[in-house]
Amino acid sequence: IGILHQEKIQLLVLEGANVDIILGRPWLVKHDPILSWGTGEIIKWGKGCVTDCFPEIPRPVQKPLPVFTTSVESPIEKRSVQIPKIYSSYKDVFCPKRASQLPPHRPWDCAIDLVPDAPMPRGKIYPLSLPETKAMEEYIHEALSQGYIRPSTSPAASSFFFVAKKDGGLRPCIDYRIINQGTIKFRYPLPLVPAALEQLRSARIFTKLDLRSAYNLVRIREGDEWKTAFVTPTGHYEYLVMPYGLVNAPSVFQNFIHEVLREFLHKFVVVYIDDILIYSRSEAEHHHHVAEVLQRLRDHQLYLKAEKCSFHLSSVQFLGYIIDQQGVRMDERKVSAVVSWPEPTTIKELQKFLGFSNFYRRFIHSYSNITAPLTTLLRGKPKTLLWTPEAAAAFQSLKSAFTQAPLLTHPDPDLPFVVEVDASTTGVGAILSQHHGDPPLLHPCAYFSRKLNPAERNYDIGNRELLAIKLALEEWRHWLEGAKFPFQVITDHKNLQYLRNAKRLCPRQARWSLFFSRFQFSITYRPGPKNIRADALSRMHDHPETSETPVNIIPEHIIINPIEWSAPPVVATPEPRPPPGCPPGRQFVPRTQRIALIHSTHTSLGTGHPGANNTLTLLSERFWWPAMARDVRQYVQGCKECAMSKSPRHLPAGKLHPLPVPNRPWSHLGVDFMTDLPSSDGNTCILVIIDRFSKFCRLIPLKGLPTALETAEILFNHVFRYYGIPEDIVSDRGPQFISRVWRSFFRLLGVTISLSSGYHPQTNGQTERKIQEVGRFLRTFCHGHQDSWNQFLGWAEYAQNSLRQPTTGLTPFQCVLGFQPPLFPWNGEPSEVPAVDYWFRESERVWDAAHHHLQRAVRRSKSIADQRRIQGPAYAPGQKVWLSTRDIRLRLPSRKLSPRFVGPFTILEQVNPVTFKLQLPPQYRIHPTFHVSLLKPFHPPLIPSTEPGHEEEPPPPLLLEDGSIYSVKEILQSRCCGGQLQYLVDWEGYGPEERSWVPRADILDPTLLEDFHTSHPEFPAPRGRGRPPRRQ
């Protein structure tokens, strides 16, 4: 009777009967089945059948297959496992001995990448009982013999302990919590269970395979084994295979098994970690599918646990569900567990029950409404459980609903769908159905329900019904969007039939309407009494306490004292007849007066230049016009006062753009000066030179800051003659490094000069970091006698070059010299000198390893840095931007009250993805190249600067090289006064009343002088132009 239901009964033989068996009323009373009278099928069995009539494992199809016997070793017993004879050629795939061998390295090895400065576990050794000690010794001995673990000297040491299995055995566990906290997460997705089940439609025969010691089939990436180390009372060990407990283990294994079986996925294979389900439409097809999978597993040295494999089933238990040709149902053993679940007495027990039942919510009518009294008990994270009569009733109702859950049919894309929705004051519900059978009857494919939040409970009934449709379409979008046939939405709210033809929609409905336009469906009205199925999802099990008054979303104290301001007289008189769409109680503003109203509201002393949202809120209290939010946003974006005065609140712009990774030592250098040191043996500064490949540094003491030519000679004498001429040198924009001598010197040598962008020293970050480390060393050893730092400088250089670099995994000495010099003199016997070719091969190997580690470190640094940054705006040459004043000295008394940005300035070119060159006035005397984080877009103001009350403020002067710099707009006249040439100038940003005479030396822009004297040859000019100045 069915595939799962089995029993033995005594029957009487009747002659002349035209049916096989007749079951009377006593049988029906005993089993209490739920029948479908339309199809003549049994949908659900009674409670007693769960424990009396269902076997532990689903039986195979009625036609048995030939089998062969293989023996599976177990610590307790030996038992035979039957495998179909047709697969006898794959007997090695089920071999336990081969499965216990150390697997090979593959591209999918488990990597354990740690964040910088990740803490190391210092494991505690737990005391073990005698049985645990024996189990531990057996486990360590077996793992060592298999090659799964090895003795370790790792700095990491996670704890080792046991937990009990369901069968009373002991499972070894390792506490990897600290390692997991510092591990960079691998986000490979696990399959969605509902989506996986939907692949099984039209399948008739199934085979389920289980991998033996699944995680142990994957190796730990070479070099990462030390991170898996653990301690036991008998020693310190580390894994060579992937152990259980690592945070990335499920994602790594899912990625691995997906790559192995990729060409079979979504065709006839579903994989969830180590569970493999093969499904087919016919037996012959199934034989071929299973053979293909077994061959693929053999090719990749993956082995199966025969005792947990099931072949050629017409009904299979997979991922907690029972699946057959008809559809998906709940596992009866899980149902039995829910039915016998005792009433919770603690918060933890209630959470455990809800978590267990939530797994099957897609089978339960009105799940969210049924559980509402239970979830209410968890609000506010209480410490004790206050069990109520309503909660007790909901608990029993949920258990009853589990025993009545229907069979869910597989969705068929070749049939039209029907979506039934309904909404109540507490929740929404929906049913996805299709017509099956002859005559066609509506069968459910899935249920959906959700509680309404406080804001949604304030919706009127029409918007709640509309919300139910929106949530249902979102839940089943993968089936309904782009469906082969238009689907039908059934609701008991008649007005929704006219939604698509409505001429006026509220903003919420307009937003939802855009979402609905992606689907092809029609809305059908069905009165509430006839819409019983969906109505049950939203109204069934309503409880008195859920009927509550509308919730005030905005706290009262926020709206007690609204800010008031005076409206301009032009909008003080309301329009005689407001246009359609104007909300009641708000005044319509004509198009010609909108900008003036925004301006008066935004710039008022009572409002203080608020942001776009706050400006819109102030206006919306009394006024309205179409596209009001867009106009306010555009105005605030173009407000110059806001652009110059407000600091950005977003993350710094510009993703990390790391320097290229060198291929050999001393090909790419970084240089900088360490200054402001006390005199030591006559030296007051240090030239720091670092090799960006090996991190090898040279520290050269100097009497004072050298000139550009002296700096070049120092580099040649201390670096180039030993290590060769480099390809690139990175430096800041110090005077030595931007001079013409420096550029000419290295241009002749063929060396590229790279300068950091303006006010962004991170470009030369390696040298800046090395200066910090050297300063820390000198402070440590000579803080009491600061004039003795020169004596320790050599040791500082030796110490820096002896330290292992996390980016390369080697010390600078090892990268450059090929070996690590000892800290103390070597006292052993001299060893044989290695061959020269061996030295070169070893050096090349060291360089390759260092290059590999450098590239990995750069990728990791970029990934971490980009988590604290956002993508910079897409700037283009010709676009105007504001420039941050963060690193510019302004001629203003207080930095806190100074503008945050100046400009706008035009972009001339994009130097690299995160650096731009600006067109600055010549008198600014700062380098025009800036990092994108120091820029922000310029938006033209909506109100021209010539309007009254909106005069543009003069720009603040720059303080550069201890002098005030003002921008000259135009030279008007020249004269000689006291033998000195003077010019009458018009200042940028100031009126005619501010014109003044200034000396020739104060005019810094030669272009202005050239243009003036060319246009006005009659005025006095400098002597260099061929004639003496004339007196006026």
From TrEMBL:
Locations listed in the record: Nucleus
Major location (coarse): nucleus
Entry keyword Hydrolase: yes
One GO CC term, this protein: nucleus
One GO term of the biological process aspect: DNA integration
Chromo domain boundaries: 966-1024
Alphabetical list of InterPro entries matching this protein: Chromo-like_dom_sf, Chromo/chromo_shadow_dom, Chromo_domain, DNA/RNA_pol_sf, Integrase_cat-core, Integrase_H2C2, Retrovirus_Pol_polyprotein, Rev_trsase/Diguanyl_cyclase
Domain Integrase catalytic, first and last residues per copy: 661-820
Molecular functions per Gene Ontology: aspartic-type endopeptidase activity; DNA binding; DNA-directed DNA polymerase activity; metal ion binding; RNA-directed DNA polymerase activity; RNA-DNA hybrid ribonuclease activity
Similarity-based family: Belongs to the beta type-B retroviral polymerase family. HERV class-II K(HML-2) pol subfamily.
Entry protein name: Gypsy retrotransposon integrase-like protein 1
Organism field: Cirrhinus mrigala (Mrigala)
